[in-house]
Amino acid sequence: MEKKQGFFSSLKEDVIRGLSPSRSRSNSLARTGSPMSGLLRRKKTSNQYYAGGGGYVAQPEPFIARSGSLRPVGEALAPLMEGPDPDGVEIGDSKRVGSGIGQWVKGQLSRSPSVTASYKRSDLRLLLGVMAAPLAPVHVNCNDPLPHLSIKDTPIETSSAQYILQQYTAASGGQKLQNSIRNAYAMGKLKMVACEYETATRTVKNRNGSKGAESGGFVLWQMNPDMWYVELAAGGSKVRAGCNGKLVWRHTPWLGSHTAKGPVRPLRRALQGLDPRTTASMFADARCIGEKNVNGEDCFILKLCTEPQTLKARSEGPAEIIRHVLFGYFSQKTGLLVRIEDSHLTRIQSNGGDAVYWETTIDSYLDDYRPVEGIMIAHSGRSVVTLFRFGEVAMSHTKTKMEEAWTIEEVAFNVPGLSVDCFIPPGDLKSGSIGETCELPQDEKGKTAIVLAAQRAKLAAAGNTIWKMEV
């Protein structure tokens, strides 16, 4: 208990001096101190794009909730580099606070990045492009209350879904407690692997198992309303994505910084048991379509379909998103979300060629629910991603299967000092956008069409105002 008090007093002092995601990405000198400041400290680079603001004033007597155990105060973590060596070591088993990310930082990110090697590994690019920071299908407003439970003049599918969400909210900690959460922080480690590739004539499976997996970790910050920032590194590359409440942006080593098409949407990774309030709001307009047994638990199934106008806003040039459907599986025993599955279908019409269809399915299983100051958080899980490509030619289909397993090491609520300045977009981000299909593997015609669409978007935005950052 004495360690816990020492940790939080140190954290509070760091926060008062200006601890925040933007502060950690500033050009100021590196600091030592709390595990959070060490976790988010970055190596100074020439392309640093976050400006450090002044010190933030901590709120009086802040309420902080967290999970995980404790790390001795003053033990600074190694600086976070651009990315790990592709042949990095395994993540350590220590369970102290910051020790999970400390092992990852020291063992995975303390070496010089192997950018050339990562660029040659198309499987890693595909893993990070599709799995690192996918978005939820629709925009949600967490400040809106859930629909009032009504039976009269309401379809049974809708009223059943409302009842299930009421139970989920209660099981997750209750609406009053969830509404008291102003911001949140989470840190975890993960492993990604491309496990299977199938064509019309043969199937190739990854026989290396865990040896072929890419290990890494991520940090996630969230703040009301609609602001979030995630940073994920694995296998030699790092992906960053964020939202300032008005636009969603993303940065990858191979595409640089760009905005996402369509309306502001939550990060799907946050729906995987980390943000029950946003999850409930996401399914507010869903319908209950039946029941299913998931890993021995009987579950209700809620289905949410994306509106056509949202799909149109997310389409780009030759790529048209036809549908995006989200399924949530809620345990009848506990009321908690145990599985979330979404699938979207994209049609790509290249110049003078046949149409090609891509169906992307992400199926996530949530496990190890534990309370963090009353909020139920899923501390582990796994996702299976399937990319299915098909066209008018019957024998031209391909299917790629990828897997990710993650564990949550730390969670904190109402972190003092976090402000809107922490979610400023990159300085080199223009108002042009790139569609979601840029991350999918394309043939040469498909690549040309997508690249041309992206170039047109950038050229159209060349005369627009670049995002400015306040120093």
Task: Summarize the entry for a quick read.
This is Glutamyl-tRNA (Gln) amidotransferase subunit A. This protein has about 475 residues and is of the alpha+beta class.
Using brief descriptors, characterize the structure shown.
alpha+beta; 471 residues; Glutamyl-tRNA (Gln) amidotransferase subunit A; 12 helices; 23% helix; globular; DUF620; disordered C terminus; 16-stranded mixed β-sheet
Class based on secondary structure composition and strand pairing: alpha+beta
Largest sheet: 16 strands, mixed
Quickly count the helices.
12
- SSE order: HHHEHHHHHEEEEEEEHHEEHEEEEEEH
Q: Over the alpha carbons, how many angstroms does the gyration radius reach?
A: 22 Å
What's the average pLDDT? 75
Count all strands and give the number.
Answer: 16
Low-confidence stretches: 1-5, 15-19, 26-64, 69-120, 444-471
Shape: globular
- How much of the residues is beta strand, in percent? 25-35%
Query: Can you give the helix content as a percent range?
Result: 10-25%
Distance between the termini: 39 Å
Organism: Gossypium gossypioides
Biased composition (Polar residues): 21-35
Pfam family, one: DUF620
Protein name: Glutamyl-tRNA (Gln) amidotransferase subunit A
